[in-house]
């Protein structure tokens, strides 16, 4: 019997200025904090955290993250952690820095606090780390036994990040409900290889409703680096509901197509959530989803400023051999196309991607 599941960080906090109070949250786990931080954020660690750490008598050590979550980097950071004598790992940065911090905490059996500085992926809340090879290509998924202990979503920090990264998080979150629905309908497999739970589907639904209601006001806030209630609600959707929802409910064609799109050289600089949004259009074609639903998804993609058609990714031509390869990778038996509830051939995926791009062109301007 495979059970249904819900898994989540023990604590998720959201608000402006949380990073300045980090000592309070570290104190629940230990008295020596080991920061793994993206280089652009290093200068702010000391000035923003020392008062609250000192107030709790917490010592600290700061280690710069190399920029890639590789086996080499994880081993280096784990050795530095052990040498420091610290007992709490604090990851600060984008998805890769947070994934590295997760792996270090797991290796060293330490408590883990994560502080995302951008809201572009599901990394902060999930029990999964993506490990790359030293040359920057994908190596493997590291499945961890636990989600992070505490996630601090400091809206004052996240609001300062470039709009493109924020939009990528919206793209990833937008697919959550539709992939959850597909997986639920066929009682497929969720991200921790259990059955999807009703809770996961519900979180996906709430995530979608928050995006529908708030996307325009949120992007106004992001583009002006302003913290507003709409922005805060959307960050809860893109960081918590999207991650915990997908973990409990599963992903389907949108993420399988995203994984396939990695083989197109011209898309190498595209963000994960940007490709997931195109994967979602492909999934909606495969499902022949209701017109109103397709139009609503396209409205949100456009409002977020995400790429809609493939030309928005900078692609100038459709190379058939590349997209046949995308379809092949997307249909790999180890990928998540199996959560669509019926066998889907490479030819069907290829045709659906062509049709999704035509659909995007039709609504482009
Ligand atoms: Zn994703």
TrEMBL record:
<dbReference type="Pfam" id="PF00465">
    <property type="entry name" value="Fe-ADH"/>
</dbReference>
<keyword id="KW-0520">NAD</keyword>
<dbReference type="InterPro" id="IPR001670">
    <property type="entry name" value="ADH_Fe/GldA"/>
</dbReference>
<dbReference type="InterPro" id="IPR018211">
    <property type="entry name" value="ADH_Fe_CS"/>
</dbReference>
<protein>
    <recommendedName>
        <fullName>Glycerol dehydrogenase</fullName>
        <ecNumber>1.1.1.6</ecNumber>
    </recommendedName>
</protein>
<keyword id="KW-0560">Oxidoreductase</keyword>
<dbReference type="InterPro" id="IPR016205">
    <property type="entry name" value="Glycerol_DH"/>
</dbReference>
<comment type="pathway">
    <text>Polyol metabolism; glycerol fermentation; glycerone phosphate from glycerol (oxidative route): step 1/2.</text>
</comment>
<comment type="similarity">
    <text>Belongs to the iron-containing alcohol dehydrogenase family.</text>
</comment>
<feature type="domain" description="Alcohol dehydrogenase iron-type/glycerol dehydrogenase GldA">
    <location>
        <begin position="9"/>
        <end position="155"/>
    </location>
</feature>
<keyword id="KW-0479">Metal-binding</keyword>
